[in-house]
Amino acid sequence: MATRHYSEIDGRSSGFFALLALLAIMVAGGFGGAWYMEHNGHYVTGMSNRIVWGVPHVFAVFLIVAASGALNVASIASVFGRELYKPLARLSGVLSITLLAGGLAVLVLDLGRPERLIVAMTHYNFKSIFAWNIFLYTGFFAIVAAYLWVMLERRMNAYSKPLGLLAFLWRLILTTGTGSIFGFLVARESYDSALYAPLFIIMSFAFGLAIFILVLMAACGGARRPLGDAIVARLTTLLGQFVAVVMYFVLVYHLTNLYFTGRHDFERFILVDGGVYTALFWLGQVLIGGILPLALLFHPVWSRSRRAVAAASICVIVGGLAQIYVIIIGGQAYPLAIFPGKEVASRIFDGVIATYAPTLPEVALGVSGIALALVLTAVALKVLPLLPRSLADRDVAAVPPGNA
Amino acid sequence: MPSGASGATVILLILAGLAAIAAVPHARGAPPVIRIEKPGQCVEPAALMRRDHMKLILHQRDQTMLRGIRTSKHSLKNCIDCHASPKTNSVLGKEGFCESCHAYAAVQMDCFECHSPSPRAAARVEGAAR
Amino acid sequence: MSLDRRSFLGLGAAALAGVAITPGLRLIELVQARSPEEAASALRRWGLLIDTARCTDCEVCVTACHTENGITGHGRPATDAQWIRKVTLSDKRTGHAQTLPLMCQHCEHPPCVDVCPTGASFKRADGIVLVDKHTCIGCRYCVMACPYGARSFIHETVTGQKPDVPRGKGTVESCTLCVHRIDRDGQPACVEACTTDGGKAMVFGDLNDGAGELHQRLRREPAIQLRADLALNTGVRYQGL
Fold first, then answer.
1. Of the candidates A111, A124, A185, which has its C-beta nearest C139's C-beta?
2. In chain B, what are the domain boundaries?
3. FRET pair for A282, CA 20 to 30 Å: which of A126, A349, C86, C99?
4. What pLDDT does residue A64 have?
5. Looking at residues B99-106, what average pLDDT do you find?
């Protein structure tokens, strides 16, 4: 009877250490940027009283959303019982934890008073969706850690289905909460929409899977473990489907806004004359994040090439960052509608599109979130048996069902 | 190098480092300067204040902030009015009432990131205890 | 049960007397100066009325607020704190122009209080919306949530704070309705300045006090809330908009 063999990667090549060193430098750069911002005060950044959430939050939200989606592969294996995904479940679980850690690190380091994290974890205003998110994130770590344990410990494998279900439901609630951080904001025309919750869920599916595909390919390539076409083809189709649904939600959101006369000015800002936001929407989100990946992933010939799949995944990630930039920063740049029908002016930029120019410390902090997630994943691959010895077609088909 | 020997080496290095730090003679921190410029008693006995002033401050701040109760006995402004040095007009500084003791005890306080360390104008002018 | 005429008249007179005295009973309680030991009372609700017709181009309210609360600018209008600002409006179709001061509206259902993860942004019993800097972690979610853009994040180290108004880097703040003055039976600095040096456009008072000027004027003259469709029941009302 064939059982699947998982093992740690070797992790002794100079390439591996070079990768760790590079990621560690990026993490250090980010932490340095955070120290600089906290020590001097946020006036050294591009953020202001009009745009309070900037590039660090774009990266943080992206990572948190992707973290939830990265668990998808494990959920499809444990909850929906698809055999083909079972060998990928361990890596999926670890990646979801490391991505969340990266995102939360950036979020916490950007706080005005990061030393008050203990206060945030002990004082909860449960009417705040943000408080719920803090609670859900810490719970997510605990649940996925337990889920990983029952997958790694053969004697506990029977519990992987119930824990997998718990993790799956928990992350649906968590991502609904993350989307609702924006959806519940009644003050701004750009937010204030129930669509944000399902939009973020489907974004999480797409971004998480794109990152998972890239990490899987890199890990298998670097550790010289065969990766068969059967798995890649399944993941390719899945990613294409997720990207299509994301585009559907974006379409519905804008079509609805275009129907309301009161929202026309805002839509014109995003779709036509918003400068950088319009460019990021059409080129970043729609073209690079949507049309290009769909072409690559559904084309009968291109979709068979590993390079094309990897390129499509990178496009989804870039498009995702652009989308979140437009949501978070574009949404704040557009002025509040306090006096409808009036032109408004004041010394502090009421009534005008706010400007925002990201500075080096902010970008360094944001990028360090990705670096932190990747370095933690690399270390995890080295110390834990996460990757099967082989993901070649004959090996994933041969194992009888029931063997995790 | 086999992994057992490399692990032991690392531990030995760490222990050596700690021993080195402990062996180097440290300058002792300057003892706190408790100079009570104003006549009269503190609102609570000194022994209680030494131990529990933070408890009183924490309780008072919630009362004042959340409920608007501004009794002067444990009010921070009242403490500062009395304990601020008349020379520097502050409870901070090398010989400040709050800071010199906190620096000696190595207990960081972040009260004065927001709160003014100086007495209210009237207290400064009169120079009398309330 | 049927009442004979005499009992009915007696009961009616007693009821009428009771109704007549009750507001007086409350008035007496409210009129008495508030001692420092007393907590803020839910019987009061502080509010402001701003008559934009009397508001001129001056900025004494802004200057007075910043002086009272120790708010100094750093020449960086995008990040400098502002608790009250003058806003000029011009109708897009007709060109009609007006100006008014805009500050925290001290809503009855404040979105900033709803969204604060630690509960640092809170509403005191008497309706004043405040930030407890001891608990604020500086996440700026309330700044995103405020429909009036009233909140500021402190972007740099603060020195020279007024003893009555603690403020520090990394926390969020907004108009406190000069709570330190109100608790000593005073008026907000902006209202005082407008009355002495400005257009006399601002009235401060207890919205629940039937005999007070604020309540009486709101009864007699039309006034609106900003963004009334959000149903936040603001404490600040505007006339002439």
1. A111
2. 46-126
3. A349
4. 97
5. 89
pLDDT tens digits, C145-195:
999 999 999 999 999 999 999 999 999 999 999 999 999 999 999 999 999
pTM, 2 dp: 0.89
In a domain, residue A362? The reply is yes
Using CA atoms, how far apart are residues A371 and A354, in angstroms rounded to an integer?
30
Query: Within this chain, do residues C89 and C25 fall inside the same structural domain, yes or no?
Result: no
CATH of the domain at A131: 1.20.1630
- The reported pLDDT for the residue numbered B94 is 84
Q: Is the pLDDT of residue B128 over 50?
A: no
What pLDDT is attached to residue B129? Answer: 39
- Using an 8 Å CB-CB cutoff, list chain C residues near A339: 87, 89, 226, 241
pLDDT in tens, C32-82: 567 878 888 899 999 999 999 999 999 999 999 999 999 999 999 999 999
Say yes or no for a CB contact (<8 Å) between B68 and C124. yes
Contact in structure between C138 and C152 (CB atoms under 8 Å): no
Could you give the number of structural domains in chain A?
1
ipTM for this prediction: 0.92
Give the domain range for residue A184: 6-233+355-398
Residues C127, C13 within the same domain: no
Into how many domains does chain C fold? 2
Q: Is A307 on the interface with C (CB under 8 A)?
A: no
The answer on C57 and C17 residing in a single domain is no
Contact A21, A15 (CB under 8 A): no
H-type alpha helices, A48-126: 55-70, 72-78, 89-109, 117-122
Inter-chain CB proximity B68 and C163 less than 8 Å = no
Residue C18 is part of which domain span?
A: 1-32
Whether residue A339 is contained in a domain is answered as: no
- pLDDT tens-digit readout, C113-139: 999 999 999 999 999 999 999 999 999
Instruction: Give phi and psi for C86, each to the nearest 5.
Output: -90, 130
The reply to whether C40 falls in a domain is no
Contacts of C92 in chain A (CB under 8 A): 341-343
Cβ–Cβ of C77/A123 closer than 8 Å? Answer: no
Helix axes A306-325, A55-70, angle to 10 degrees: 130
Burial B95-108 (b: 16+ CB within 10 A, else e): bbbbbbbbbeeeee
pLDDT < 70: residue spans in chain A: 1-3, 398-404
Partner residue facing C91 (CB), from A133, A338, A342: A342
Q: Tokens for B24? A: 């180097």
Q: Which position has the token pair 């709101």?
A: C218
In tens, the pLDDT along C15-46 reads 666 555 554 444 444 555 678 788 888 999 99
> Which residue in C has a C-alpha nearest to residue A128's C-alpha?
C115
Environment class of C171 (CB within 10 Å of its CB; exposed 0-12, middle 13-18, buried 19+) = buried
Tell me if chain A has a CB within 8 Å of the CB of C67: no
- Three-state DSSP at C60 gives helix
What value, to the nearest 5°, has the Cα angle with vertex C105 and ends C164 and A339?
140
**Strands C236-239 and C46-51, sheet pairing:** parallel
Residue of C231, C228, C227, C202 lying closest to C217 (CA atoms): C202
Token reading at C109: 């259902």
A299, part of any domain:
no
What is the residue-averaged pLDDT of chain B?
83
**pLDDT tens-digit series, residues A144-163:** 999 999 999 999 999 999 99
Dist. CA A171–CA A178, nearest whole Å: 10
Put simply, whether C140 touches A (Cβ < 8 Å) is yes
* CATH number of C123's domain: 3.30.70.20
DSSP class of residue C222? -
